[in-house]
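Can't attach files on this board, so I'm pasting raw text. These are the components:
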Amino acid sequence: MTTATLGIAMIGHAFMGAAHSQAWRVAPRFFDLPLRPVMAVVCGRDRARTEAAAARLGWAEAATDWRAVLDRDDVQVVDICTPGDTHAEIAVAALAAGKHVLCEKPLANTVAEAEAMAEAAARAAAAGVRAMVGFTYRRVPALSLARELVARGRLGRVHHVRAQYLQDWIVDPAAPLSWRLQKERAGSGALGDIGAHIVDATQFILGDTIREVSGTLETFVSERPLAAEHSGLSGTAVSDRTGPVTVDDAALFLARFSGGALGAFEATRFANGRKNAIRIEINGSAGSLAFDFEDMNVLHYYDGGDDASVAGFRRIVVTEPQHPYVDAWWPAGHGLGYEHAFTHQAVDFVRAVAAGTDPAPSFADGLQLQRVLAAVEASATSRTWHDV
Amino acid sequence: MTTATLGIAMIGHAFMGAAHSQAWRVAPRFFDLPLRPVMAVVCGRDRARTEAAAARLGWAEAATDWRAVLDRDDVQVVDICTPGDTHAEIAVAALAAGKHVLCEKPLANTVAEAEAMAEAAARAAAAGVRAMVGFTYRRVPALSLARELVARGRLGRVHHVRAQYLQDWIVDPAAPLSWRLQKERAGSGALGDIGAHIVDATQFILGDTIREVSGTLETFVSERPLAAEHSGLSGTAVSDRTGPVTVDDAALFLARFSGGALGAFEATRFANGRKNAIRIEINGSAGSLAFDFEDMNVLHYYDGGDDASVAGFRRIVVTEPQHPYVDAWWPAGHGLGYEHAFTHQAVDFVRAVAAGTDPAPSFADGLQLQRVLAAVEASATSRTWHDV
Amino acid sequence: MTTATLGIAMIGHAFMGAAHSQAWRVAPRFFDLPLRPVMAVVCGRDRARTEAAAARLGWAEAATDWRAVLDRDDVQVVDICTPGDTHAEIAVAALAAGKHVLCEKPLANTVAEAEAMAEAAARAAAAGVRAMVGFTYRRVPALSLARELVARGRLGRVHHVRAQYLQDWIVDPAAPLSWRLQKERAGSGALGDIGAHIVDATQFILGDTIREVSGTLETFVSERPLAAEHSGLSGTAVSDRTGPVTVDDAALFLARFSGGALGAFEATRFANGRKNAIRIEINGSAGSLAFDFEDMNVLHYYDGGDDASVAGFRRIVVTEPQHPYVDAWWPAGHGLGYEHAFTHQAVDFVRAVAAGTDPAPSFADGLQLQRVLAAVEASATSRTWHDV
Amino acid sequence: MTTATLGIAMIGHAFMGAAHSQAWRVAPRFFDLPLRPVMAVVCGRDRARTEAAAARLGWAEAATDWRAVLDRDDVQVVDICTPGDTHAEIAVAALAAGKHVLCEKPLANTVAEAEAMAEAAARAAAAGVRAMVGFTYRRVPALSLARELVARGRLGRVHHVRAQYLQDWIVDPAAPLSWRLQKERAGSGALGDIGAHIVDATQFILGDTIREVSGTLETFVSERPLAAEHSGLSGTAVSDRTGPVTVDDAALFLARFSGGALGAFEATRFANGRKNAIRIEINGSAGSLAFDFEDMNVLHYYDGGDDASVAGFRRIVVTEPQHPYVDAWWPAGHGLGYEHAFTHQAVDFVRAVAAGTDPAPSFADGLQLQRVLAAVEASATSRTWHDV
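---
Top answer:
Structure tokens for the assembled complex are below.
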């Protein structure tokens, strides 16, 4: 075990904050890391709630002024887990202060903000400061394996990509108007929140980028009850007033990748019965792959070269020591869960920082993805295809 | 068993001819029919091959002139199983001759032809002559059950329709240039051949129609070897010359239904490893349905009203006596196969003829569907949304 | 098409009669047969019902005296579809009369009867007369493929066989006392009715026989309402009197095969929610196979020699032209149903008769299987292992 | 967060040690605990390796004398993660020293040892000292839910239990002779190592115990290469000498539960392609349940009371806040992994200690299970049924 440390400051402590905390805590217990993460300080707006979060999540200190955190010598990494409208300001300042930055996805709520962040990251990289955006699903072992298989040429020329991210948490019209349904906070709805994940995952697996899109957006329920004031974290108490939903409930788009593949994408919060179903299927001239996050330790692979009498999609249980990240965990057949991908992200980030290399996905990658989302929105307005 | 008969003339005797023959043969053995189908005559272009087909498929006579068949008094039904470019001429003439017509899908290769056929069917209906287009998949019990559940209100307001028809039979660039890859014979490629099926099936299940579309077409392999002259039915012998593929290999489109549902459609012959995967998923405010023809006796159903601790997609094995068409066959758990839907089609057609009612889908339904396909093609050219 | 014919007399016309009729009707339409089956006469106890069955099922004549049928010159095959207590008498007489015999499973209700039948078949074989017992599931293409893969050495040394046949049709204690629940008619309950199928299927796939067993039988509901007199085929009307169930509701046994494999078998009519789930899994030193009749067109195959990073059970959709029996039917991906295996049985039987070879499974095979069932019953009584 | 602490000493630091360490570390971060676990000391035989484990796994100290650990005032819990042959000595001493004990399964290698341990636990309980045996799978949320559903009467009278634990890690005859294959260390092979888990899980779900068994054991490969001396943790280096395998490779048994259910159990390390497949299916008069650890976040449930037209096994994704343990983790659809059940075990243990109640499964439960295993072994020898 190394004695060299890497001090972390985490900004935000809700859902993503819990996942990132678990990652920093667990990573050095299963992986050999060149630097030992130290959970130095968590930062939030409300002192009492931030202190409770620090105790619960295991941070040494709580703070309420993120700018002050940037001055601390014991902090080398700023881990941004706040809503998207605050990413740009914090990340740009942190990079300017010489702190490595891990920023939750989406990089920002607008292309302009993302551009500023990518520029800041480019400047910082010249000074040896690293920046990474947090698309964790690519670090689910089954999806990492998918990329490896494509990179090894196992799929040949890719013809088709189809990807769906299906949830149902607001199918009830009585579900309250959370910040995720307000454009000024969330930037977009299903498109940016979950559509972003399948764009990243498929571009990552293919090692290719989307060139043009034709999409449509829909808001099925346009008015929802406001959450009651002072309602707690559970967020279920609603008032008798309502407010407008200003983001999309569902986003669908067709896409063409630079390498010629056709894509069909769908992200929705209205797929009744689907809780967090991320489905990706890729068909190439030499084989195919299929994945569903509802069975996250499995990758289906069709080898077009198999003898016809025994060809079929193989249900690969991605828990073998040969599979990405798996060797650090349990014996074959002992599956991983949702948060393990966050641990893998922390591992790769720490290793890149120690090695002085740029971790992926970079802020430039995050910007490119933001441009894809913006093209979908533009296409939905103009009702035509749009270049990214 | 009735002694009244219904004389059938079948035009064409390839893949669809074999399926229809099986249906006429088997239907009266399992279902109570008001008229007994008599397999009177099969008609083809080549005498020797048609006579062989008659013997093999069980038709009393073989003929080579379909017009002469229309004059026969022992023929009450003309069953059209030829390629799409001949449908209009035969069907219009048969209806004019007072013969009931069952015409394979797609109704025609162009909207203009389909319009003429729908007009002929309307005129014939006034005279008590029936016309039906053969979209058999809607008579797979699981899909018939899907329609029943939607009609019963089990899904509530439908938000999402996603449908894929995935095959891989020409993913090999060395596969020869069959008539199905030539626009003048086939009309279109994946779009009309298989895309038509998922349009019909989803419109049928919803009891709703597609209002507008935005689509794209792709031909991945634009030049293919010609089949060798005199090559037999198996069609594998190829010459060393090549010719252009003039239809789409894949068709993708987004759609909006009149009732407000969003649709995502994909039809392709390049999904490596998928042989005949028809996948349909429908999400509504009260529940969801999912189907895959690779497991054709099963319908997945999510009841949004189930208690949360035990809610989940139900794997309904659609072989109970309560399920559509099933009671005539075997005990529960003894699944049906591909051709059973053709038998169900024959049953419904014979019953409609006997009852003097119009069978569904009508030629008007076939025309509406043709307009959906035409709108997809127009959209693919203009790169914008098109009304149907 | 051949002009030589093979006249069939079918004895019994209930569930199995319908399945066999469909097989004789359909087989020559899809397969090249050296002799054309002629559905000459169906024989039952009740004249009116037998005539109705002849009309419905497509037999030229109806008869009520099976012995008289044996005298007919236009009958070359006797197809026995009656309950098990009548098999021996009919089969022995038919063979003595020089008729080829296809006898539904189980061969008989007792070992003694089965011995007499096997002896009769051996004598008849010397005179060129063929006998076969009807275990159709081995002719489901996925299970035929399973045998091929084992025979090709794809599994290596077989270590494990686990097989379950799960139904639930009498889980309701109010279900009436049918003949299948009476020992004098049915011989045994779940053991002989459905357990027999998984014994045959696994012995067939392995090309090996069960050497010894240790089993237990259970009757969960020992008294049931009698069916009302004159109740029809549907059999649901019950009287207010009850009678004893004299067969097993469930049979479980462990087995050792001659080749060293361990078997775990379970047959039950009390597996709530399982309608006709035949599950077979075989694990060998080089690979594994798994099958479930609820998804009957699929065989799962694990190749232990696959590279570890991409190894996994392959979901083989057994609808390729390379697969057993499939080439005669539809294109890839168009699945078969329950009754197709009966057609395959008819095809193999006709071909064997024409070729002058013994079809399998033979009456000797049926006798061996009967001895396995008898050993299970003996073991259940003695509570120890029994040799077959 | 509480400030009261609970000092833990863990004995052993291999596979189970890593899993338990993760549990102690993570439990207070997601669950509200009345006492905060302190990872005080880990104990092993080799000082250097134990110190390395302490650093890696996050224990404050390393020790090599487990008896000395029992004298420490800062230790209130002894967590036993060593092989089974050492459990009895450590547990009895720890309980006598007034330490709460969490002991990995199986409780011991013999019934006699288990009896001594259960007696020690009974004595300790009188003094307020708690003892628990570590069958973690019952705390996988899907299996906890299974028990809840049975307890709520959702299955009615249970007729069938079928359970398999399938692995393949020694199917290769060249796999070396580890301690798990030596009777003096491991007690038994597949039976005690993995068969024990499905016995516990099914007894737990039913709330019933096994009354009698009939089983068989098999060792397919009786001689294996010895591991090379000084071979590391990975254990793959083998010497050119061999030694005898003295435990079973596979164990199969039939069982009868006290409440009348029939059981079929199979545990094997020779199921090629199955890595850690724990499959449990339970059929009752009112419904059924099915589980497979390869898809560990899912429970399949059949409600026999559902309307027949929509009845089917429900695929419950056990990630809802209504499900056991789940509310503490992530939103719906974000699955858990293998080690989460260890965290749940730690949570329940800490809560029981704080509440002064006896955690389950108790040492008495572990003893009862040991008697089931012993009865299977006796039955395998005598080739008859044995009472537990």
